[in-house]
Each structure stands twice: as C-alpha cells, then as structure tokens.
Amino acid sequence: MNQADNQSASTHSPASSQRQVYSLRSCVWLYLTAISCTIFSVLFLDRPISTWLHHNVDVSVIFKPLSQMPLLFESLAAIIILACFYPAWRNKLGSMALTLVLTLIIASIARVGAKFVFGRTWPETWIHTETGSNLSWIHNGVEGFHPFAIGAAYNSFPSGHALFTFALISVFWWRFPKLYPVWLLAMLGAIAGQLGQNYHFLGDLLAGAILGVLCAQIAICFSNKFAMATP
204: which of 98, 102, 159, 173 fits an S-S bond (Cβ 3.0–4.6 Å)? Predict the structure, then answer.
C-alpha cells in the first residue's frame, strides 16, 4: 500500500468517523440542553424575572444601547456585503459575504415562521393603536402561547433581536475566531439589553439565541459546500 492509500485509509478510518459522530452528537446535546433551559425558563423563570425587572430596574441609559445590538452587526454585515461589489474586496470577503446573505435570509424566514407558530404574548404593553393595546404580563396578568395567532401582540417568542444578533455574531465568530471574547461579550450584551429593558422574557431570548446559532450553522454549511463545488 502506497502513501496515498495510507492517507486515504486514515481519512476514512473508524477513528475519523468516530470524531465526526462525536462532534455531531455533542452539537445535538448542546442544542437539547439549551432547549431544556428555555423550557425551564418559560415554565418557572420568565414571569417572576419580568415582574422583578418592572419594579426594580430602571437603567435605560445602560440597557437601551445594548438592546440595539442587532443594528450594529446588521450594519457591519451590510458593509461587508457592499464591499464585495469591488473585485479587490470580493476575493477577501466573498465567502463571508455569501454566508452573511444566507444567514440573513434563513434568519428572516425563521423569525417570521417561529413567531407565527408560537404566538406568545409580551411581558410589557408596547403596542398602542386606535383599537387598543396589546395584552401583557405586567399590565394585564396575561402570559401564554397562542399558536398561529395573527398580530404583533403575539410576537414575543422567540426574540427577533436575539435571533439576528446571535446569527450574525456566529458568522463573525466563525470567520474571526481569535476575537471570540468580543463576540461573546456582544452576545451577552444583547441578552442583557433586551432583558434589562423588559422587552422580552428570558425564555424568548434563549429561544432566539438558539435559533440564531442554528441559522448561522446552516448558512455556514451551505457556504462551505458552495465553496467546495466552485472551481
């Protein structure tokens, strides 16, 4: 057996397959753990945390900027995508720009679909129209899921802000892994901002974070396959 055959055999060896299966298994367990934490939060933590925040926290100067974290990374994504219209930048950032575009598309579809499927009410009353205001936990003692309900009053779960923040940051983390402390702080900041303002229940934010990371992983997978198929 020559050297090339040895390399081929090692590539497809049981040890290599076990590493791939173990990696997939780890990913599945991480998602299951995160989903379990979300369910636990919805059942036991969301309402008391929201009530406590409403009565004890009023620091908009700190949390308000953090709550707008998606705008920062959406702007960065837009800059990278637009930069690729120039050939010099396209060679450097083309793969990342493609991944960001795919991530935004997948995340947008996931956001609209998930909110419609779950139909959860909000922690606070934010929507005021001529026909009335949305029911909420703080102002009406109402909290629940209303699957396939139509209207902005049922759009709390999952958090779109958390979804887009975690989706885009995951792509940046994938492209610039050495800056992981920055990405981790940005993720935590987005959660703190939304939670501190009582914009979302904790469960909404956890669900959005999970879905955002999943959207990014799907986009990265498609992007890698496209890159391998392109000569």
Answer: 159
